[in-house]
């Protein structure tokens, strides 16, 4: 049984905490938040003890792992504290804001032989899992291109003018790596056509280690309610389209007349929230089986590096070659 302590009692923390409670292999031992009222309310909701800090939680409860779902600027401190106390960690995205902090977390987990997982939950979406499976089965073949488009409402956030990179970048660059491998080169363009003070649409052209080229477009120039995401893979055997994270995946083999369309049942079908639950449950299952809880802290760090590269490519108006990074 994996005993878990949870840090951060916002709305996303609740999804993680309920997921740990719902899994037969894990037990939520307690919650904490720097705003103790939030921890107390959460503890009452979930029927677990509440603490004003991770230190207090760790002093009172025996835990094997810590769930870090704090504000995105505050992942480093509790994650590092948990690792230094000898606990495995599952941290929300982005792994950290600062590169050096992400590097320190990954190094600390390695040094202590602890597991550090990151919540790149899109990998657990029904459509994306299906597309990845078809790719693994060789049904798409050798990739020629990967196209990713994510468009939602905005802007918001504190990191002007680049907050979109910090908001969606962890997921977007993780999807690029999930489907296409490492980024060998990239050129980013950004625009703020609504004069918001933020770059609200970002396009990135990339060459990937799989040999494919990729275009990534992510944007705050749309709305949340009218279709958010689309991914398309094309190889030498077929083309695959994925609609939303969880909704539909289609396979169009180049040979023959038959296409495969897989849709979630609209009544019992997957909700976006299920990607969190699946990710948390995979973390518990992986630890129980002695497997690294993929996606790992190193995947979080790889995405974070690409986010910085994306900003640098735009600011310096040049093609960057992350693949050449030592
Ligand atoms: N994976 C996804 O699809 C996805 C979606 C939305 C948000 N997120 C991420 O989830 C995280 C949480 O989001 P949220 O909307 O619940 O945030 P939130 O700001 O509403 O809640 C975070 C909580 O953490 C607490 N906190 C901050 N620092 C702390 C510390 N050092 N110790 C203890 N508690 C601390 C805050 O008081 C707050 O209650 C963020 O990192 C966000 O980027 C992920």
List keywords for this structure.
binds nicotinamide-adenine-dinucleotide; Rossmann fold; alpha/beta; globular
Structure annotation, total helices: 9
Q: Which strand-content bin applies to the residues? A: 25-35%
The number of E-state strands comes to 14
| CATH homology superfamily name of the largest domain | Dihydrodipicolinate Reductase, domain 2
Overall geometric form: globular
Q: Kindly give the count of domains.
A: 2
Radius of gyration: 20 Å
According to CATH, what is the topology of the largest domain?
Dihydrodipicolinate Reductase, domain 2
Low-confidence spans: pLDDT under 50, at least 5 residues? none
Q: Helix coverage percent of residues?
A: 25-40%
Question: Order of strands side by side in the largest beta sheet?
Answer: 8-9-10-7-11-12-13-14
Major sheet size, sense and barrel closure:
8 strands, mixed
End-to-end separation in angstroms reads 39 Å
What value does the average pLDDT take?
96
């Amino acid at each position: 049984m994996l005993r878990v302590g949870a840090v951060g009692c916002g709305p996303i923390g609740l999804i993680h905490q309920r997921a740990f409670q719902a899994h037969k292999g894990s037990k939520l031992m307690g919650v904490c938040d720097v705003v103790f009222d939030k921890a107390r309310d959460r503890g009452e909701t979930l029927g677990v003890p509440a603490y004003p800090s991770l230190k207090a939680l760790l002093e009172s409860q025996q835990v094997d792992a810590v769930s870090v779902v704090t504000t995105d600027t505050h992942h480093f401190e509790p994650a590092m504290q948990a690792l230094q106390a000898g606990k495995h960690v599952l941290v929300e995205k982005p792994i950290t804001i600062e590169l050096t902090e992400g590097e320190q977390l990954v190094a600390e987990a390695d040094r202590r032989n602890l597991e550090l997982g990151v919540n790149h939950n899109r990998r657990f979406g029904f459509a994306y899992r299906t597309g990845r499976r078809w790719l693994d089965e060789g049904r798409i073949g050798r990739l020629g291109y990967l196209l990713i488009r994510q468009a939602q409402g905005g802007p918001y956030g504190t990191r002007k003018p680049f907050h979109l990179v910090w908001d969606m970048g962890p997921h977007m660059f993780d999807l690029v790596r999930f489907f296409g491998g490492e980024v060998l080169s990239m050129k980013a363009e950004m625009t703020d056509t609504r004069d918001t003070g933020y770059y609200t649409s970002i396009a990135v052209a990339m060459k990937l280690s799989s040999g494919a080229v990729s275009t990534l477009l992510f944007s705050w120039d749309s709305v949340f309610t009218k279709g958010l995401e689309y991914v398309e893979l094309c190889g030498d055997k077929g083309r695959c389209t994925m609609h939303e994270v969880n909704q539909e995946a289609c396979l169009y083999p180049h040979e023959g007349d038959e296409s495969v369309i897989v849709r979630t049942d609209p009544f019992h079908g997957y909700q976006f929230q299920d990607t969190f639950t699946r990710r948390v449950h995979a973390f518990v299952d992986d630890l129980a089986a002695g497997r690294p809880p993929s996606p790992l802290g190193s995947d979080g760090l790889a995405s974070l590096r690409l986010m910085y590269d994306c900003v640098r490519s735009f600011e310096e108006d040049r093609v960057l070659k992350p693949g050449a990074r030592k």
